[in-house]
Amino acid sequence: MGRYRVGLRGREARPTRSSFRDRSQSTSPSRCTQSSLRAILNRLQSYRIYLLVGAALLVLLYLTWPRSGPRGTAQHEHAVELTPRWSSKSETSASTNLRVRDPDHTSTSGSPTLAKRVTAELEHLEHGLQRLLKNRFLPSRDDLSKLLQNLPPKQQTLRFKVCNGFANQRLSVVYGVLLAQHLGRTPVLPVLMRDGIQRSDATVMAHGANKVPFEDVYDLTFFLYELAKAGIRMLEPHEAPRLSAYTEVSLGSLGANVSGALDTTYGHVQHLSIDCPLFKMSPGEMNQRLDEPIIWAVLDALRPAQLPYSYVETMQRAIKHLGAINGKPAARYNFLHLRLENDWVAHCKRWSNIPDGVVRDNCYNNTETIDVQLRLFAFSTNVPLYVASYWNDVEPERAKKVMGRLVDAGYRVITSNDVFPEAMKAEDREIKALVEYYVGFGASRFIGNSVSTFAALALLERRHQKLWAAYYNGGNIPVAPYLPVHKLPWVFTYNSWSGKYDYMLKAAVRSAAHFNTLMPYCIFDGNTSSSIGRWLVDNNVTMIRHVPSWRDELLKKAQSRMKDNVQHSHLYKNPDMLVSTFQRVDLPVVPILDQYTYVLYTDADVYFRRAIHLDDFGLPLPRSVSMSYEFYKMFPYNAGIIMANLPTMRRNYKAFLAMMLDNDDGLYYPNYGPADQGIINKFYEHDLRNQMLNQAFNTKPYNDFDPNSFLIHFHGPKPHEYLSYLETGKCDFYSVCEQGFLKSLCQYVQEWQVYIPEETEMMRLGDSCTWLTNPTIMAVFQKKTGLLAQNQAVPDDKRQEFTQKQRL
């Protein structure tokens, strides 16, 4: 695995107002539809024999039914054969392929017997049905040729090599194609390796008997066909110019920007040959919006060749059989990719000690206590657990210790020694890795080590396919900056009765979608059929309905001091709003979120102004939660923006609830504040004080303008309240409204308003800000209103009251 360095990301182009006018509808299928189709396919699998018997009877009836006209012909000139087949546009819908048959094919001379015809038709029908049930579209070479007719190769080509183990070779193919696209060249299919195990940091390359043809590992026709569908032409080795026509270039000699250097220095060279491009492209030369479709096109096109695919199916059946309960095979299984091999232990020592100032502290974490992590990620002991590792390279005592803990914890453990097909035992190391990789795709839950390229890539691919995936070692995903497809989970809470704030929520969702680096989730309270509920679904937000287990007890506690606490917040008057604001404390136990290690929580009154990635929060990442200042630079902190470590919060959940509900002040926490913000500050005070969230992730418009801020939080006055202040001169937040206009509000409003072009009222605020950015007009406005550039917008004796009011 290569070395990783965090690169700075520049600011991206901003959208125009018209960018969001036609985004009210989503083309992606709902989770409900996907689940229904999956259930139908499972039912088809269960009743396969009945379908085949029925189909056989229909074929027999068709073949023996009397026909008008001479034998072998129908009333039409040509007969049409209907063959069920997967549509190339969807993995969950079948289409009908019309194939014209030679009218003389069934002539009397040389015609097959009825039994042979029935057998042939049944075999053909079963093959088509198997393709349907296995979700395996099989394009032919003719299909590929037709597609390539409209996709001629470019004049310039690029050869590249692959390196190291299975996952690194898989990524090498991705980077090779991506680099060719950046350079405007046609890539040439590489050869792969049988064994790429690394005993040092040296790159392992294919040579001699260690080479293996691409088609022995992956389905070549499918790969070329799917790439062609995505507009990418790739040459097979025999189609490319001879090797002597290529100019060899070592990427290590080109510096940080390899694509720029290749284009500048070798742009005139017709045919280039480079070494392994794995991790050679820096984060700065990749564009997530442009490169992500190419990356997924390549990864989605890489699927096992027929022989390794048969191994995958055999192993999956064996795992379910060994996981049987009361003689009934298991319906599903979970998958653990456990890195504890000798070469991994040595790699972690080297990797953690690279002297470049980057924090690397999560390579071997939690490996020998993996049973604890499985409990934190809700792995059921009732589901068989397949544990993958390269057991030939694992110290026996280490394996015995770790596997013993899993068995003692109640897991039904299965390894490759239990289920490897006999024929597969003689296969090469990387073929075995390929098979286990795809066995992992069939699992209900997958967990691995995020520093391992194998596990990190499997995690990204599974999440891309909406499958559950997690990592047990904490920290970050080092490969993510070099493969710009990872989406940081972004969670917010909302309800169906806060209509006057809908415009702010829409700006938050649209600005996040513009940068395309976040995966939005909304914990929603109220009617999901409301206009805002439907809008969220249409804009690709995953809706979560969650009823807290503590709801009744919380309301009982709140009612005990309701009259006293109304002075702190109006929320104490409304039970539903009080429960809604407490929803964020359940982040670690919401089922769909339990696969994530870190999530970004924000209030709805934000907008994003830069792409956000996990590593942007700095390493090491928070041990539990991280928050930043409220109005004043002092503790307690503001819970409007939280970087949350969910496994830690899950471990502390019971103790947290006990402290939250062990309160005689009606859910007000003296010295920490009211409601959920108060209890979060109280319980996690030590961690919060030790590691505060950078203000760039919680930038306020009443402070100085920060060109490097990632998101703006309309903390205190909301945009409509700033507008009201301009019209009436009144502000419920003391001098904070004045401070906003004197500081950075107008600069941020100019950016923010493009996300809500339909909100004419907010356009008035933007227009007003356009005038107020003129120094002369601002001076007149200050004189007329009496605005002063105050350092302290809230009087000392009103600090606590202001903090409570704006928060709740």
Describe this entry's structure for a reader.
40% of the residues lie in helices and 12% in strands. It is an alpha/beta fold and 808 residues long. It folds into 5 domains: 49-135, no CATH class; 144-301, Rossmann fold; 306-480, 3-Layer(aba) Sandwich (Rossmann fold); 488-715, Alpha-Beta Complex (Spore Coat Polysaccharide Biosynthesis Protein SpsA, Chain A); 724-807, no CATH class. β21 and β22 (673-674) form a beta hairpin. It is globular. The two termini are 48 Å apart.
Give a summary of the structure in a few sentences:
With 808 residues, the chain is of the alpha/beta class.
Instruction: Report the strand count.
Output: 23
Provide the helix percentage: 40-55%
Strand content: 5-15%
Number of helices: 31
SS-derived structural category: alpha/beta
Assigned CATH superfamily of the largest domain: Spore Coat Polysaccharide Biosynthesis Protein SpsA, Chain A
How many domains comprise the coordinates?
A: 5
How confident overall, as mean pLDDT?
83
Shape: globular
What's the architecture of the largest domain, going by CATH? Alpha-Beta Complex
**What is the CATH T-level topology of the largest domain?**
Spore Coat Polysaccharide Biosynthesis Protein SpsA, Chain A
Distance, first to last CA: 48 Å
CATH class of the largest domain: Alpha Beta
